[in-house]
Design goal:
This is Methyltransferase. It is found in: Golgi apparatus membrane; Membrane. It is a single-pass type II membrane protein. By secondary structure, this protein is of the alpha/beta class. It has 15 helices and 16 strands. Strand 8 and strand 9 form a beta hairpin. The longest helix has 22 residues.
């Protein structure tokens, strides 16, 4: 990073936001005729995927509009841009559009965005665009800002013609086009797919394809159709934000959750989070916490209970459990799928607080190393950051044995206040350097 007076300049391949990300975002909203040039469209646009996000200025500026963005970029030649994004307090994920599906369920985002992201969208029969199509909600948008959008030279014209033809066969329509930015919109129903000529490519995905299966699942160059239930509903059926957070989402039925179960879970976690904050309050100031990870998020009620805090939560769902991640996205939250027997896709020291509800118990059932999990949590956690463990007493006693070696300190411990036999254990990571390491810590 370079200190340039009142601004900080980041390394990278330039920017499309010549007049600032805020003005660029307002221009997108005006192109779509949204009220007050606000991209949130009166709460109807809440979740965004920014592909090739750089240092995530696009997602950062959207936060003030109550829009949460999953900023996605690889570890590339432009240095550790995702690390810069997370250090700025902006949601980000280290990943790449490659051969496997991204770790998000279908119909997760209202908008996908790509600005100078240098992705070859035409490769492999348009498979990368089809992955974005899987992730977009009915009526969702893809905002593409690139020289190809205004056909600057012969090669750009060729790319634009081929890309236009591809998205047309995918049933996307141009919602707006201005200068070097085009915004496509995805259809609300399956009608256009059904009206295509036989043999049109890309084909529809197989009827038995599960569009929400993402862990290690290869991408396919096919169009994800809507379920019959969603087709009849003509859209996602979601209420605007912020009511979306606490309203029973339409995909609850996919997991056989009732409205009563949803409301009870929301209520329970609100009580638990209030209790957590009471334990943390002696140790935190107004801006102590920003990046939070819920390591076993279930349906996202922990994150929902933080609605009045100036924080964002990465909701992690186990890859071998119920696929509740689609409920989390339906609530207007973000998250990813993961196996805690492996390292999480982020840089070191990127989260201020980790919430581990029965995570250690689940890892032990798989036969994975709980010590490795402790080390991974230490890697992710920032110095002076906090861990809240909610688990059985033996798990807490196990963690206590490693506090000294990890330079963690116990902050608080209490019974969970329920009859599940769980204990709440709050830990803080010390800030230390190698020279401070005691010789007897091996």
């Amino acid at each position: 990073m370079i200190d340039a007076g009142e601004k900080i300049k980041f390394p990278g391949g330039g920017t499309h936001f010549h007049y600032g990300a805020d003005k660029y975002i307002a221009s997108l909203a005006r192109m779509l005729n949204f009220t007050d040039s606000n991209l949130n469209n009166e709460g109807r646009l809440r979740t965004v995927l920014d592909v090739g996000c750089g240092v995530a200025s696009f997602g950062g500026y959207l936060l003030s509009s109550n829009i949460i963005t999953m900023s996605l970029a690889p570890n590339d030649v432009h240095q550790n841009q995702i690390q810069f994004a997370l250090e700025r307090g902006i949601p980000a994920y280290l990943g790449v559009l490659g051969t496997k599906r991204l770790p998000y369920p279908s119909r997760s985002f209202e908008l996908a965005h790509c600005s100078r992201c240098r992705i070859d969208w035409l490769q492999r029969d348009g498979i990368l665009l089809l992955e974005l199509d899987r992730l977009l909600r009915p009526g969702g948008y893809f905002a593409y800002s690139s020289p190809e959008a205004y056909a600057q030279d012969e090669e750009d014209q060729r790319i634009w013609r081929e890309m236009s033809a591809l998205v047309s066969r995918m049933c996307w329509k141009i919602a707006a086009k201005q200068d070097q930015t085009v915004i496509w919109v995805k259809p609300l129903t399956n009608d256009c797919y059904m009206d295509r000529k036989p043999g049109t490519r890309p084909p529809l995905c197989r009827p038995d394809d599960d569009p929400d299966a993402v862990w290690g699942v290869p991408m396919e160059a096919c169009i994800t159709r809507y379920s019959e239930q969603n087709h009849r509903a003509r859209g996602s059926g979601l209420v605007p934000w912020p009511a979306r957070l606490t309203s029973p989402p339409p995909r609850l039925a996919d997991l056989e959750y009732s409205t009563e179960m949803f409301e009870k879970d929301t209520e329970i976690w609100q009580q638990r989070v209030d209790s957590y904050w009471s334990l943390l309050s002696p140790k935190i100031r107004q801006n102590t916490l920003r990046n939070i990870m819920d390591m076993k998020a279930n349906i996202g009620s922990f994150a929902a209970a933080l609605k009045d805090k100036d924080v964002w939560t990465m909701n992690v769902v186990p890859q071998d459990g119920p696929n509740t991640l689609k409920i989390i996205y339906d609530r207007g939250l973000i998250g990813s799928m993961h196996d805690w027997c492996e390292a999480y896709s982020t840089y070191p020291r990127t989260y201020d607080l980790l919430h581990a509800w029965t995570v250690f118990s689940e890892v032990e059932k798989k036969g994975c190393s709980s010590v490795d999990l402790l080390i991974e949590m230490d890697r992710i956690l920032r110095p002076t950051g906090f861990i809240i463990v909610r688990d059985k007493r033996p798990v807490v006693e196990f963690i206590k044995k490693y506090l000294k070696q990890l330079r963690w300190v116990s902050i608080a411990e209490s019974n969970s206040g329920s009859d599940d036999g769980q204990v709440v254990f709050v830990i803080q990571k010390k800030k230390w350097v190698v020279e401070d390491s005691p010789k007897d810590s091996e």
